[in-house]
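Hi there,

I know you've been waiting on this one. I reran it after we fixed the sequence typo, so this is the corrected version. Both the input and the resulting structure follow.
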Amino acid sequence: MWNLILADDEPIIVHGLQKIINWEQLGIHIVATCNDGASALELLIQHKPDLAILDINMPGKTGLEILEGLHAAHVDTKVIFISGYRQFEYALGAMQLGAVNLLLKPVNRDDLLSSVRKCLPIPDVQPEINVTDLPIIPPSVEMLSTYLPVLYAVTSPVPSSSVERRLMDFAVANEIESWHQAEHIDIQVYDTTAPICLLFKNCTADQLAPQLAALAEHIKTRTGNQLLFLIGAQAQDVTQVPDKVGELETRKGLFYFDGWLNGPVLSLEKPLFKTESSGEELRAQREKVLDACLQLNPAHFQTEYAAYCASACAVCNGNVQEAQMRLLTLYSSVVQQVENYGKDEHHTDTAPLLAQASACKTYGQLVQLTETHLKLFLCAAREKYSSSDKTDALRALNYINEHYSEPLTLDTMASHFHMNSSYFSSYFKKNTGKNFKEYLISVRLQHALQLLVSTDMHNYEIADAVGFNDIRSFTDQFQKAYNKTPQAYRKELRQEV
């Protein structure tokens, strides 16, 4: 069993270091903790631990003075320093006196483990620690304080790799460190995952919001990176901090919608989105997009599509998967209207787009991806559909798309368009490339796909909802089209998400 001492002038950081790694699992025992440099040196000389993790700038004695004291007392403890100060003199002095490493706050768990492994032969496997597992500070004068948790993330430009993200986080963290010292604001790093969580002491969301907005502007000017801050609910004492941070962590999906929010500072206590929208309003906006597609009007489509995306953003309220499904559903609906126009080898299976959508890092990327696919279809349709005859065929397709769940037959369609059944059948096949029955089945199956992915409806419920007479005919047609059962298809798509 290896012995370890932890020291930092911020109690919450000491407790965070205790829990960020499962030390006991690694064969490491924490023999003591403290919050000042003088006490740290006394404990180090007393216990002579194998390893010490120390803040380099504590009251009483600095980290460098502690190292000098250890050398004078002939104590061979290996030391890892942590600091919010990126000063060359500190780092150089620490390394000259034998420090193993100097880690910048907020401390990354993997970086800390790597530094510990340079000192001790510890196992490689270590489970992740959830933010809610972090400890609470024991009752003390700290109980008189209030804490306001704030998540922040670098949202633009989006880091393209984990290395780039870490570099950005380091730069931002140091700007925040310098800012709060200059402004005399009490701030603590609570967790070290991305997005990073900060705790502001004794302030409200209204007091903090303008300062965070100014900080975001400052960082954008200095680094070129955009921050998004998300303010949570105030903890009345430190014992409530883990729960309040946990509540905030559940809203991480909001960072996905950067650029579509009332940013750069958001508060969970206030409306988050520029517009409020209901599900009914979103469905109405979706119909406007479909109408624009039927008119083959690119400018009209652009306007209605932008409005739909804004409404979808508000309805989803930070739910990333729902946003993906909203745009996927729109894409599928438009494809059904233009799938027979343009390219001869067009496939309407939504699985490829779903895979691409799940890889988007922001809602803006998702909107652009879906828009690109939709414009390709509209362009193909405009090139092929120019005559009034084909426009009438487009009207027939649109009617099927709107009434697919009803008991449509060749006779009812012919009657609606004032044709006899034989002529309508020939007319439909000539202008769409499919006979009426084939097209109706394909439309129903596309809607079935949407329900399979976006709902937990039973197969018989889906069959009835999209217009099949019974579950047997639905299953037979689905297997014929996709070479698998509806249940297998649902499982496969959800795994890709």
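Quick highlight: The chain has 20 helices and ten strands.

Best,
R. S.
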